[in-house]
Amino acid sequence: MYTESSASSNNNTNNNIVAVERVNKLLLQSIDTLEEILKNQQLPAQERATVALKILEMTGLLSQKKTQSPSTLISDAQQQINQLNTDNSTRKLSPYQPKITQVKSTFLPAFYVEIPNFLSAEENQKAIEIAIQNRDQYIESTTTTKADKYRQSYVLFSQYFPELAALIQSKILETLPEVLAKLNLRPFEISEIEAQLTAHNDGCYYKIHNDAGSEKTASREITYVYYFYQEPKAFSGGELRIYDTELKAGAAITHDNFQTITPANNSIIFFNSRCRHEVMPVVCPSKAFEHSRFTVNGWIRRLV
Questions:
Q1: Taking 50 as the threshold, does the pLDDT of residue 245 lie above it?
Q2: Pair 19, 71: CB distance under 8 Å
Q3: How does 56-73 read in b/e, with b if 16+ C-beta sit within 10 Å?
Q4: What is the CA radius of gyration of the chain?
Q5: How far apart are CA 283 and CA 238, in angstroms?
Q6: Residue 188 phi, psi dihedral angles, 5° rounding
């Protein structure tokens, strides 16, 4: 039989159910928000620990819903949210407001070391002969980013000139202490000295890049370029430009100031592999392969 007291009781029950659902939704949303904050690895450990404790506290509040009245739970939950809003609005050091840290940068000036007459006259002439004799083994150059129209030249891998590669590498090791001092770099343990032979003919170039900008190339410390070509010189252009470079937040920023190196037969240059640089376009009127701008170039890698 329907009575006024039973209707009142049902209304109270329904209100309690609705209130509990509101509490559940409110607390779960708050916990989700805190968990997202906790995932921020840039937060200091102490702040992340505070966030974790706050999650545990609110989880405990959620588990107590059966022993507390809905109105009490709503009041407690609302206090938690109000505290979050207060902390954010006053920008206090809290687990909900990560600290903003200044990103440090490293400036690399466009320094380089140049050594003339790096090989003997006989060794230099032999290098030219090897470069020309293996013309059928060259392949078109590429970049690690696979960018289109970013580089044009022809590369010969060291397996086709092992004796010349070994000669260049041994001479580099002999002169490395002097090079490191002039580049203001500390000695380091070497894992490898890479070498490849590159030919630049008419219209060849390489746009601005650095040699240590990817995961595979990160251990490159020093770039070297040994220049050689037939005399008299049958090409123009092909200068190397090395730019002042700023390393910041994982990026290499090119500055306006640069140094220009004109290729000189039988000379070698060294510079920091993280410096941005480019090869200017080559003009070779004859377009004959033997008249190319040749280099043995490569990288001195640090042992990781």
A1: yes
A2: yes
A3: eebeebbeebeeeebeeb
A4: 34
A5: 8
A6: -145, 160
